[in-house]
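A protein record pairs a chain with a discrete description of its three-dimensional fold. The shape at a given residue is found from the number at the same position. Here is what such a record looks like in full:
>
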Amino acid sequence: MMSLFLSSAKAQEDKISYEPGVSVNYKIKSRWSANTSLGARLTTLEDAGTVTEFFELSQFFTYHWLSNVKLSAGYKYRYRDPFEEEEYLYEHRLTQQISWAHSNLNQRYASRLRVDERWQNDNYRWRFRYRFSLDAPLSGEELNPKEFYAMASNELLYTTGKTTDASLDNRLTAGVGYLLAQRNKLEFNFQWRSNDLFSNLNHVPFLQFNYYIQL
């Protein structure tokens, strides 16, 4: 069923994007932690093969305010179209967020409110985001090393700016993860992005592959 869904999504948009990434988390102090991540996006076009859309590097710092509430701020640098012989394209992004979570039996529910300030060459935009997610082990009451878990999320994104028309997007994600060891895990997600919901609606499918390391 998943292969049929991917095929229909690719046929609808004539493209599918892949986002591999690696993320390293490490503790700084008792209530402070940091995250450094590298990522990229490759897109397969029906008439042009596979192209690299960007490489990116991000750094986040998190304050563990309460047992289930975290405050975070970070910076992301994105280098767009790295192999194109055109004008150098870049993006700087500042992010502030609050996230909270709670558990019920073997399921974990989490919410995240995030604000992005994005500079793309001469274009400046604000983006306001809310994401709800849940995850649960696929075997047993607790997740142990060498076991799989399932996850799903939905995120709404509102974007506005002086030179950009306001838009509302939606990102629906479902996937599976594998806990390699107590601190390291792999995640494989399928994400369906619906862009510009009330004006020029279009859909883009994504496959995401992430490796998380906890030091």
Observations:
- The CA atoms of residues 113 and 152 lie 17 Å apart.
- The longest helix spans residues 2-13.
